[in-house]
Amino acid sequence: MAYGLLKGKRGIITGALNDQSIAWKVAELAHAEGAKFVLSNAPVAMRMGEIHKLAEAVNSPIIGADATSDQDMDDLFRQSVQHLGGKVDFVLHSIGMSPNVRKGKAYGDLNYDWYKQTLDISALSFHRMLQSAQRMDALAEGGSVVALSYIAAQRVFPGYGDMADAKALLESIGRSWGYYLGLEKKVRVNTISQSPTKTTAGSGIKGFGGFYGFAQEMSPLGNAPAEDCAKYCLTLFSDLTKYVTMQNLFHDGGFSTTGVTPEVVAHFIKKE
Question: Given 115, 150, 212, 232, which residue is catalytic?
Answer without folding.
Answer: 150
